[in-house]
Structures are given as structure tokens and as C-alpha cells.
Amino acid sequence: TTRWALTCTCARGLHRGRCWRLRKARAHHQIFPMSGAYFAALDIRFFVKAGTTASTAPTSSSTMTEVLSLSNASIQGTSSTQKVTDYSSSFGFGKAIVTENGYSIPAALNLDPTSEGYKVIKRAFRNGAAGQTLQWYRELPLVGSGNTDGQVDAGVALVTNLQEDLTAGNVAKLTFTLEGYGVPQDYQQGDGIATLTITNGGNGLSAGTGVALVSTSPAQGNLSGKNATATITVNGSGVIQTITVVASGENYKVGDVLTITDTAVVGSGDTAPVLTVATVA
């Protein structure tokens, strides 16, 4: 279901909803906040899984449940410091040293009791005193042309401060805080391709120059590599013999699995090749 926000553009719209246009809209329609729309537009994704105090930060979202309709999942770091005197300084200036680091993630989403993500979060809150934690995994995609700082953050946390907002006339909301349990991890994404390994040369292929390479693992998308091209040569059976990187692209990691889908190279009935990133630039 598509949900829209009503926005006042008149001068009185700055007065926190006192504009008659908004009052009239509220009388006939429910005004939906844009919860989750910003996340969805940027393809920011957040996954969770029940854990214990012995759990470690996940390295993949493959067995996790995605939390939908999020409007906030920002990591907020905290540090405890202690001031000491630098006696090596003739002026005796103090120095602050960090004695402890921590983090929390205040989160909010539209409440859907049938959502599996909601169920996982609520169970983790209910069973927190018994040692249940929540493993979390957040994907931040590439943003903007040429940007190679796509990143995944992950960790283990306790679910605290869970609150439901079921106020009549409003969209049901759920807010909660993930209190970090241990060190969070961040997995920076990769670089341009330097060399490729021909894992499977395919069959029936045609030679090509500047052929686009398509990621299959991870699946082609905002967290996969992109924009790499290569020149291939084939033998009489259409099996790749050599492959030379033309454009190295961005965001690739060693071990990424690629293929070719260009119909000028892979025709109907042909077997597509399997290529593996061997080294990155």
C-alpha cells in the first residue's frame, strides 16, 4: 500500500499543523508519516536474528529476517574518558584517555504485528533478561557516481526501551533501542577489479570487447560491484580462453562471482561463463 504525507506550503504551515488546510485533511484522512520511505529510496536494509550473549557479529544476511518500514537505525557511539596529567609537559596539561567505548541504535518503524522482523525484535526484548540478544546487520549502499564507500555494519545488541504507539488516528509505530553488546563490526566494500579467474569458460560464446560483467554473488545491486568490463577471446567451441579487464569498475571484492549476460556474447542456448575476482586494484 502506498502511503503519502500531506505537506502544507502556506506561510501558516510553519505553525505546527495549525494551518486550516492540514486540519481539514486530518478531518477526512489519516496523515501517514513517511516512515521507511527514505530508507527504501536509498536501499538501506536492516536485518535481525535472535542470538545469545555468546553470539558474534553476523557476516551475512542470508539467514536473517529483514526489518521493513524503518525510519531510523542510526548507530550512535559513546565513550567514557578519564583525564590524566601529562607530567612530561613542562606546563602540566591534562590529557583525556578513553576508558570505554559503546554504541546504541535508536530505531523506529511502522508497526505491523504480522511482520517477522517485528516478531523477532519483540521476542528479543521479552527474553532479554534470560540472555537473549539480537544479531543485527545493516547494509549501506553506494551513493553517487564513482563512490566506493558502500559499507555493511553488524553486531550483537540487547533490545531495550521497546514502546508501541497505538494512538487513535495515527499510524501504529514501534520504537526501541539496540544497546550494543560487544564490539560492532564494519565491512568495507571493495575496489576495482585487477584480475579475474575463469572458473567456467561457458560454451557457445562469441568473442567480445568491453563486455559488461554482471555480479551473481553477491547478487547485482547496490552492495555488489558494478561498472566493470572486459575483453574475452573464445576457442572454436565458444569457450572463453582469455579475459582481460578493460574497466576495473568499483566495489568488488576478492571472491566475487561474475558472469556475462550480453546477448552479443551469450546467445540463446549458450552456457554463460562463471568468472571469479582474483585480485582487486
Can you walk me through this structure?
With 281 residues, this protein is mainly β. 9% of the residues lie in helices and 42% in strands. The chain has 3 helices and 16 strands. It has helices at 20-28, 37-42, 116-126; strands at residues 45-52, 65-66, 70-73, 76-85, 94-110, 132-140, 151-165, 173-180, 185-188, 193-200, 208-212, 214-217, 229-234, 240-247, 257-259, 274-280. The strands form 3 sheets. Strands 1, 2, 3, 4, 5, 6, 7, 8 and 9 form a 9-stranded antiparallel sheet that branches. A hairpin with a 7-residue loop joins strand 7 and strand 8. The longest helix has 11 residues, at 116-126. It is flat. The model is unreliable at 1-35 (pLDDT under 50).
Class based on secondary structure composition and strand pairing: mainly beta
Multimeric organization: single chain
* Major sheet size, sense and barrel closure: 9 strands, antiparallel
Beta-strand residue fraction: 35-45%
Strand segment count: 16
Topology as H/E string?
HHEEEEEHEEEEEEEEEEE
Question: Summary?
Answer:
The protein contains 3 helices and 16 strands. The chain has helices at 20-28, 37-42, 116-126; strands spanning 45-52, 65-66, 70-73, 76-85, 94-110, 132-140, 151-165, 173-180, 185-188, 193-200, 208-212, 214-217, 229-234, 240-247, 257-259, 274-280. The strands form 3 sheets. Strands 1, 2, 3, 4, 5, 6, 7, 8 and 9 form a 9-stranded antiparallel sheet that branches. Strands 10-16-15-12 form a 4-stranded antiparallel sheet, with no helix packed on it.
